[in-house]
Amino acid sequence: MKKQLIECVPNISEGRDKNIIDQVTAEIEKVEGVKLLDVDPGMTTNRTVITFVGEPEPVCEAAYRVVKKAAELIDMSQHHGAHPRQGATDVCPLIPVSNITMEEVVEYAHKLGKRLGEELNIPIYCYEEAAYIKERRNLAYCRTGEYESLASRLGTEQWKPDFGPNEWNEHVAHTGATQVGARDFLVAINYNLNTTSTRRANAIAFDVREKGRPMREGGKVTGKPMKDENGKPIMIPGTLKATKAIGWFIEDYGIAQVSMNITNISVSPVHVCFEEVCAKAAARGVRVTGCEIVGLVPKKVLMDAGRFYLAKQQRSLGVSEARRPEALRPEGKGHRIPHRRPQPEETRRHDLHGLCQRDRQRKPRSWWWLHFGLHGCPWCLFGHDGRQPVVAQAGLGRTLGRILQLGRQGPSYQGRVA
Description:
The chain is an alpha+beta fold. Helix content is about 25%, strand content about 20%. The chain is built from ten helices and 19 strands. The chain has helices at about 20-30, 55-75, 100-120, 140, 150-155, 170-175, 200-210, 270-285, 300-310, 395-405; strands at about 5-10, 10, 35-40, 45-55, 90-100, 125-130, 180, 185-195, 215, 235, 245-250, 255-260, 290-295, 325, 350, 355, 370, 380-385, 405-410. The two termini are about 25 Å apart. The relative contact order is 0.11.
């Protein structure tokens, strides 16, 4: 029988304290048969996205340990960050990778949620494919009002958790609630804008996200929201199906971003979303200056984007998908160093693999960042240090093309593409 593989992507509500992040991820590496693929902390969001993979039983055990350790170390009553959240481990989705159906993954998600609720006394809401209640398929619904409203929601029938306590107490005040789900691959991508205005970033996000924006009287921002006969807001849908998006200000960069989740890459491929966000931003007098992919993405995402931009440039598409970019050659294990702005005294240099990087002494642990020639270097694919705004718009097509062109036949690889 072929080995079944699933992926787990828990998001913990800590992105600033490296010691806490290390302790949580260490729990994963204690479980035999589980591979830790990526750890992606965010300073402004105060949130870390963790990715690991393995057979279902070991992955569920590792997920349990992550939630347990995060609940011990993270006090939600003291948590502040730009990203919506309501628990020390905010979400814990399971994703089918190979030789396993979504129905089977849902069963594992339910078993995991039940164990977390009963043994750790954490309120558990099941979402996406694992949802018991139709409305809870939508993660945003599960997090209505976020952590700050949890005390008033718990104890009601509407917000009774699928597993765990339905009451607000000292323990729940510390841990918050966790959302456990089963879903397909999701791409999280942030678009950097040449503005500091959260209002403009939100306007662009509302233009493109599937949910859209509320219809207002007179079509004006200051107009009163319009409702239908049932009293529900009338929405003007956005242009990109299977996407969720918000705008926020990232203090680390000193810029605003459109932060997007693409829930179905077949319906809205990454390159299509990039082009649409650029168009909507331009229509509002704003420019997309770069973007960043958070966590891991399927290889198909980059291959499809590469082909799209090669075709747009009227260049050959005759490159085998089996060919890997040389830049995806990892130099070590471990998670990312803390985010910081690049320092002016740090100089970039290039190695033989076409990697643009800073002084190696400043990056004790290797990590990959999709990098589209921010400083005009035609050979740059990936950067190593600092979470600088990346992906200069003018270099996007050029570098996505190189993902296809600069590869060579080789063994399997690890990196930020999975």
